[in-house]
Amino acid sequence: MTTTSPLPTGPRQEQSLRILLWLVAVGFFMQTLDATIVNTALPAMASSLGESPLRMQSVVVAYSLTMAMLIPASGWMADRFGTRRVYVGAIVLFVIGSVLCALSPSLSGLVAARVVQGAGGALLLPVGRLVVLKTFPRERFLQAMSFVAIPGLIGPLIGPTLGGWLVEVVTWHWIFLINVPVGIVGALATLRYMPKPPVTTVARFDLAGYLLLAFGMVAISLALDGLSGLGLRQAAVLVLMIFGLASLTAYWLHALRRPDPLFSPQLFHVGSLRIGLLGNLFSRLGSSCMPFLIPLLLQVTMGYSPAQAGMMMLPVAIASMSVKRVTTPLITRHGYRRVLVVNTGLVGLAMASFVFAAPDQPLVLRILQLAVLGAVNSMQFTAMNTLTLKDLEPETASSGNSLLSMVQMLAMGMGVAAAGAVLAAFTEVFGSGEAQALPAFRATFGCMALITIASAGIFWQLAPQDSRAGPGRSGAEPGGEA
Question: For this UniProt entry, which segments traverse the membrane (predicted)?
Answer without folding.
Answer: 20-42, 54-74, 86-105, 111-132, 144-166, 172-193, 205-224, 236-256, 277-298, 304-323, 335-357, 403-427, 439-463
